Amino acid sequence: MSELFDRIDALVASRSVLPPPAERKRLRQAHGLTLDEVASALDVRRATVSGWEAGKTEPRPPEREAYARLLGKLAEFYPADPDATPPAEDRAALETFSSDPAPAAQAQPVPTDAAPEAAAMTTEQNTPPHPAANAVSPAAAPSPARTTRTPSAASRRPGARKAAPANVPAGGTDPRFENGPLAVVDVEDDGQVLAYCTGGLVLDVPAKSIPALVDWTLKEAKLGAPKLSGPGKDADPLLVLTPSALERYGLPVTLTDEERLTGRIPEGHKVIKQLVRAQWKLTKRGFGPWARIYRPATGSERACVQLCIPSWNALDTRHWGEAGQLPPPELARVLGVYASRVMTPRGSTAVTGLELMTALHPPTRATEPDADGKRHSEHNPASLGKDPVDCAPCEAPDGHPLLKDLPRFHVRGPGEKLFEEAYDWARPMTDAECTLRHLVGIDVNMAFAAGANGLVVGLGAPTHVKAPVFDPKLPGSWLVDLSHVDLSRVKVGKDTWADLDASLLPSPFTPKGDRPQGPAWYATPTVAYAVELGYDVTPIEAYIRYDNGRYLDGWYQRLRDAFLATMADLGVHADMEPADFLAAMDGCKERDPELAIVVSAVKATVKGGLGKLRERPRGEGWKPGQPWRALSRPTWRPDIRAAVISRTRINLHRKIVKHAAFTGQYPVAILSDCVVYAADGTSPLDFLPYRDGKPLPGGFKLGINPGLVKHEGTQDVLWGEEVRERFNAPELNLARYIKDGQVTDKDSGE
Fold first, then answer.
1. How far apart are CA 477 and CA 415, in angstroms?
2. In 351-400, at which residue ranges do the beta strands (DSSP E only) sit?
3. CB of 555 within 8 A of CB of 485?
């Protein structure tokens, strides 16, 4: 009889009611559980649990009963949003789902094709039905074995509405791009090729070759994104190829060492021959990690598809973390959020950052119709134009053609070369600081983006002026002697002077914090700060840009909004109280590791995009004095990069001076946008002078907005002294290691 009961129990367990896949993921994340933790508890593989949450597979006994029990317990703690209205098939599943398995007579199996309900997720909102009416949560794509999907008929069942999380792009309203900006192409075990789109949509891919895949993408897939500005261009569709897709289409899963160095597969590869026969072209970068396949435009019609190949290192782990290892639905979600909030990736985060500038300020625009009703192309005001301009000699990096006549091995000093860089400064601690217990690091959020906000930069070529009168409203490079600026007495307000200990402060005029020794080249924000501190300046000469504007404002605003929206999804909001903000930041990345990847990529887009403004030669047989490829871009503008870095460094120094004047506290170390202070406690609130919740005007303020600060890390003072003694370096920059205390030379991508 016991055997019979065991069989009955097994039968009941085999039909243990489970919530829809998206609800499974919501419940796990709500309790802060990782896929690995759930997999370990159920004694299954991580990929197995991921498959259950994606709706690609269903658990079987005995794991099904245990999994149902786990989800039931979590549902007691985190009930679904009562205001959300799930689809009928999900509503039935949710109503029958409880913490205990239902009696055998009442248990109802969950329909295998029930659409997951993203509106029940805690960080999501109800969204209107999408035109395709077929997308589900990106981590819950339906099993290919159960549903056939095509671009024209991809819904899981007739009348199914789109269930798109609020933090996942669902494609624009433009019918040309109704399936979103991108797709991750993968091959199932049965050989079926699928395209995982944003918002959870999955499309069947009939293409048997790369040329056919490009054709399908342009003619049927309805992928892409609308232009970001009036005279701009629509974003080309992006296809991300997984290793299984690479094998399916005859491409190598990984590159050889030689291919990795050249950044492409050989021209004679069979896939490239297929493209040539089909009259497709590749850009000069060839078929590499970020390949662009196109035909020349005819009129306003573009025919171009971008490929991203993660296993060829397209997604730099310093910026994209483990994105390249994610399952297709999750990877589509990460890239889709980035694409909707920043732009469709066009290459590395640096390339995308630069492309975003151009997308927001295209070089040309159409004129009004002429007498014959025809429009013509003309320069777009407030853009950098379509032709490159020469920089000033002082702005040129070493090896630039403008410097080819300099003697070999000549080293340019401050009087010949503009050197605006971020801080790398440190000093020995004072005896008083050594009596304190902790070193606390604070980090400026999106510091370089904040430095770009409202900044007036040159749009055209510079004008050389001798003995100019300094004008803080004119962007340019100025040769001026600032050695007379004495930080022991400076203005901290309109008519307010402060006496400071200059030996404990870095100079605002040099990256290493050394006081200038004579005339040197500076960008406008640096010279303007010398005037702000209360000192006269008399430039010797300058390269001034009279054609100027706030070119980076739109760029800053888009990246700021992307950063703030994604941090809000992680539970960190603007205008939080200081203590609440610090608590919200603690562990925020673990709340949704996929969105944490997006945050990292957004920040890298800022720094990388600015870095590209002064891109250096990258091999290709270049020799000093010869031009390199980047110089042909109108966006090769070292003066704009210098102005942003100058303003960012000055913004930080201004806060340091205000803080010192009010509290008598001085920084121990500064690295780029991180500042370290000695304090008695472990929190920034132990040394930041908040009064009644209000920060020091003009000083440091805790918060998530660009320009405000967060807690970077805390270490013991004894740790700092021990590290400096171990390396016999009294001025070792502790800001570099304050986050985790690990002293390493690992490249962080900064």
1. 12
2. 364-366, 377-379
3. no
- Dig out the tokens for 618 from the structure: 């990258």
CA dihedral 201, 205, 209, 210 (to 10 degrees): -20
pLDDT of residue 43: 84
Number of Cβ within a 10 Å radius of residue 288? 22
CA-nearest of 95, 22, 13, 9 to 62 is: 13
Rounded Cα distance, 611 and 424, in Å = 17
Contact 721, 707 (CB under 8 A): no
3-state DSSP call for residue 196? strand
CA–CA dist 318, 311 (Å, integer): 15
Contact 285, 314 (CB under 8 A): no
Please report the pLDDT score of residue 340 as a whole number: 96
The alpha-helical segments, DSSP class H, found in 288-396 are: 317-320, 328-341, 349-360
498, β-bridge pairs: 490
pLDDT digits (tens, 9 = 90+) for 261-288: 999 999 999 999 999 999 999 998 899 9
Q: What is the pLDDT of residue 298?
A: 73
State the CB neighbour count (10 A cutoff) for residue 591: 18
What is the residue type of 688? L
The pLDDT value recorded for residue 2 is 63
Q: How far apart are CA 726 and CA 663, in angstroms?
A: 32
- DSSP tally for the chain: helices H, then strands E: 22, 22
* CA distance readout (Å), 409 to 306, 403, 479, 677: 42, 12, 23, 40
